[in-house]
Amino acid sequence: MKILVIGATGTIGKEIYNTLKEHHEVYGASRKNDSYPIDITNKDSIEKLFKKLPKLDAVINAAGTAAWKPLSELTEEDYYIGIQSKLMGQVNLVHIANKHLKDNGSITLTTGILAEHYEPNTVPLSLVNGALHSFVNAASRELERNIRLNVVASGAIAGGFPKDKKFAGYLPVQIEDVVKIYEYTLTNTNTGQILKIY
Ligand SMILES: NC(=O)c1ccc[n+]([C@@H]2O[C@H](COP(=O)([O-])OP(=O)(O)OC[C@H]3O[C@@H](n4cnc5c(N)ncnc54)[C@H](OP(=O)(O)O)[C@@H]3O)[C@@H](O)[C@H]2O)c1
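That is the input. Now the predicted structure with NAP docked in place:
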């Protein structure tokens, strides 16, 4: 398969990229990548990369951020960071990938445990993760050409996070197990799934 992995130098994306490249033709992209630059907060940048690449079977996004602050300190502008990056970055990616992917293509987004479990200082992430779950549920039913749309929601990744400390009430998860879920979305025929691992 020809697969684009966005966020390919990050904690999650790097492992997805390294695992998939053993068996597939994988393009690893991020803002600072010289060969395959992309900024998901900018629609033109997303479009430009899809036009540069050969026709793809799948895209996996593991990029997107939001503000980390206690509720009492959050401004409206702070919320827009996550809305522009993690939320609309991935929503715009779906619209653009939908035009460019091969028939039967696969789009996999990333949210996280904060969609449904609480951790201090992460309200903006909870907001966008929850919105993305609703988006995937609805948008997946309107994609044509048998293009599938799924999202992976993991707990904190062990390694970057202390392995015996809970995040949002759950112990960290192993990156190898998380990568298997992303891989599963490439070939499984289901769509509109919120694949939780925590
Ligand atoms: N790490 C965890 O424990 C965890 C758990 C659950 C969910 N998540 C979610 O998973 C996603 C990735 O997390 P991570 O920890 O792997 O992040 P990370 O280590 O900070 O890596 C982010 C990756 O995305 C790229 N990137 C950042 N902003 C971008 C943009 N606007 N456009 C394109 N690429 C961009 C970065 O490279 P450049 O700087 O070159 O752009 C990098 O490759 C986030 O949405 C996070 O909330 C993370």
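The longest helix spans residues 76-100.
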